[in-house]
Amino acid sequence: xxIDEELLKxxxxxxxxxxxxxxxxxxxxxxxxxxxxxxxxxxxxRQLDGxxxxxxxxxxxxxILTNQRDPLTKSIERAITATLxxxxxxxxxxxxxxxxxxANASTVDSPLLQAEMNELIQTVEAxxxxxxxxxxxxxxxxxVAREYEDRRLQIKENLAALSIGDPNPYPNLWTWYxxxxxxxxxxxxxxxxxxxxxxxxxxxxxxxxxxxxxxxxIEPTGWARVDRNVEKIVRALETAxxxxxxxxxxxxxxxxxxxxxxxxxDREQHALSDGVTPxxxxxxxxxxxxxxxxxxxxxxxxxxxxxxxxxxxxxxxxHRRTAGFRDAALCAEATRSLINTIAIISGTGPx
Length: 351
Description:
By secondary structure, the chain is mainly alpha-helical. It has 3 domains: 5-97, 2-Layer Sandwich (GMP Synthetase, Chain A, domain 3), CATH 3.30.300; 114-211; 224-346. It has 13 helices and 3 strands, in the order ααββααβααααααααα. It has helices at 5-17, 21-28, 59-65, 71-83, 114-134, 141-161, 173-180, 188-211, 224-239, 243-264, 283-294, 301-314, 325-346; strands spanning 31-43, 46-57, 88-97. It has a 3-stranded mixed β-sheet with strand order 1-2-3. α2 packs parallel to α8 (188-211). Residues 100-107 and 212-218 have low confidence and may be disordered.
């Protein structure tokens, strides 16, 4: 007998098949840490083994699974019992809380393009908003029923490509109406909370997946300080959660530009037309001198403009107090692109 992640997958599918999406999504956050046979029970001449399973999960899941009166806990225990190997019965579940960060959280292994993932997130958010709206005094079901069903089919097809199930068990808005009108969700607030919890785990996984792809140079440049700065940007982008974190990525991008400029600038070869020697921290003027020398002549006008635009974008974030993930990711990408471009021009990058 073996108790492993396959058992959890079967239990999750059992819950989805029964329309218990909230419990299924909660169980998806857990992993099997250990298991042991701690009891035996004789059924006639047949011995049944009592299994104690140890799960690890994030704090929110831990709080639910350690509450024996929570209906989600009961649903999960029932699902595991239903999928245990023959000859075993569930003696109990021991739960251990683990800290999850953006750097190590589970994400969707996506075959979809980044733009397709972003579109899927927007589609799921739109479906979530529509379900809340019709249940809280919004549009009449007959007016938006087709929209809901078409969007649901689109979501299911995209999630199937990711090998995950749709947490929404309602094939149409009338079945959703049956749920909220049966007395279990008597208030607008309870309906909003129900739908939010229904989709939260899925949206978290999709959003983390769009953020977990590190932004890296084509290959290491050989400029040690530049490469270290890029590694710092990658780590910072993976773990950033608020405006201060995103703004700090702008500072790292600026430091990368300074290190890059110091690596390629030569006072003799890249002298500026005004005759003033830039300071060691004046990345813009040093890079201007390098670019002007290496890409001289009218035939390189577009390349010079492109590289100067990359520089402006790379350093644009450091003073933006309302920076978000998209701002930080764009600055990081501009930094990566400029480093790679200058590496190619200087002969250290791929040719």
